[in-house]
Amino acid sequence: MGMIGMDLRARQQLALTPRLQQSVKLLQLSAMEFEQALQQAIGTNPFLEEDDPHSDSAPGLDAEESDRSATPLDASTEGPDDAVEMIPSAGEGLEERFDFDVQSERAGNGQDSEDSDWTEWAETTTSLRDHLQQQLLSVRLNSRDLEMAGLIIEALDEDGYLRQTLEELAEVSTLIPQTEPEEFLTPLKLIQNMDPVGVGARDLSECLAIQLREQPPSPEREIALAIVLHHLGALARREFARLQHAVGCNETALRSAHAKIRRLNPRPGAAFSKADARYVVPDVIVRRHRQQWVATINPAVLPTIRVNRRYAEIFRRARDASHAQLGQQLQEARWLVRNTEQRFATILRVAETIVARQKNFFDYGDVAMKPLGLRHIAIELDLHESTISRATGNKYMSTPRGMFEFRHFFSRELDTDTGGTCSATAIRALLREMITAEDHAAPLSDVRLADQLASQGIKVARRTVTKYRRLMQVPPVELRRLN
């Protein structure tokens, strides 16, 4: 019979406090997600309010309140991957960093006044159905054909294809009595002649054939038309010898026809399917000041949230056991204000370090990009790599060279013959310059591109050149020769 006993053992366990969890969550949000999170918090927490910078009222937190809310982070609760290090608050010099002429910035962006709304400049999009319906208004049709054409347009998918059969359309056309499937052929042909070319096709073969028929007649077009109508499967399997025999052409003509097919659009309606515009709000603005590149937080994303001092004071005077939930909300409000300051301070520190490390990029462009990893920033700022990863994810930097995600400035390190290093971004920029300057009658193959990089002291394998070329969406040498 076994003995039953008790054994006490001590063990350590890492855990995140609620404040640390909130800090981690806020840091990894994008600018727009962060703004939405603040608005949601203001709507659910009675102790939070928007801070009007033009108001003469007292700030939401006085010095005593701020000190009480600035509880140091407990280092014993920080895990190796989830820790968020303590950084200076906004009161310790951040106001000077944020200070610049907002009016001049708006004037430089072409805005007329303080009341200008950036959403007024957003481009509106037209759906594929609206685009086709507008074209349908300019065509003279009888009411019956017009109803059938409208029914076909409504049945198109996002790529512009008619996936339903004509029999199915005839069955659902309850508003058009005694409709036969063949009657839909005339309005269907009409739609297939509309813009974008290839819309209204019932399969890929018909879509490509419609686009080819819009091109000027040529021997290559006839070969391509025969391929897409009768031998599309063989082309997909790259059975070129069989295709030459099937369509009766030589290798050069087949290559030209193949290139013509590759330039067609298999999804003519896709350009209209992106109805939801995606806006990017920069977290940081980089500008040149006195021969130095300076990073500042974008004033448009600075928080306008504070703890309502009056409500906090009333609660402090009337505190009792029945108000435990209000006490928790007050504590969460204080955490949110402090974590908001900490979020922007971390983003600014990371941005300043990136700008300092990649100074040559801002001076000369991608070709001067240096190798950089999250580890380098983490070591320099004495933060964990996970913190840097959260501070750079979904964060954008507005620069004189354009809008870039923070991750754009991180590039892996490649060796050179001279014993130095070169970034992958710089190599892609060199490849782009070589391809742009090449002779179109004799374009550079991936092997020759690798040789030219080697002549500049950069050791890159042919397969690496191929990978970078594909990432830049540059076609292979055969298609560039034909173009």
Structure write-up:
Strand 2 and strand 3 form a beta hairpin. This protein is of the alpha+beta class and 483 residues long. Among the domains are: 145 residues, no CATH class; 70 residues, Orthogonal Bundle (Arc Repressor Mutant, subunit A), CATH 1.10.10. The protein has 23 helices and eight strands. Helix 6 packs antiparallel against helix 7, helix 7 packs across helix 9 and helix 10 packs antiparallel against helix 11. About 14% of the residues have low confidence. The strands form three sheets. Strands 3-2-5-6 form a four-stranded mixed sheet.
Topology at a glance:
Layout: H1 18-27, H2 31-44, E1 48-50, H3 63-69, H4 94-98, H5 102-108, H6 128-136, H7 143-155, H8 166-172, H9 185-192, H10 204-213, H11 219-230, H12 232-236, H13 240-247, H14 251-262, E2 284-289, E3 292-297, E4 305-307, H15 309-317, H16 324-357, H17 359-364, H18 374-381, H19 385-392, E5 396-399, E6 402-405, E7 413-415, E8 421-423, H20 424-437, H21 446-455, H22 462-471, H23 477-482
Parallel strand pairs: 2-5
Antiparallel strand pairs: 1-4, 2-3, 5-6, 7-8
Key terms:
single chain, 483 residues, alpha+beta, Arc Repressor Mutant, subunit A, two-stranded antiparallel ribbon, 23 helices, 8 strands
Strand order of the largest sheet: 3-2-5-6
**Poorly predicted regions:** 56-123
Beta-strand percentage? Answer: 5-15%
Give the N-to-C terminal Cα separation: 87 Å
Radius of gyration: 31 Å
Question: Kindly state the mean pLDDT as a whole number?
Answer: 78
Structural class: alpha+beta
**Global morphology:** extended
Number of helices: 23
Count of individual beta strands:
8
Sheet with most strands = 4 strands, mixed
Residue share in helices?
40-55%
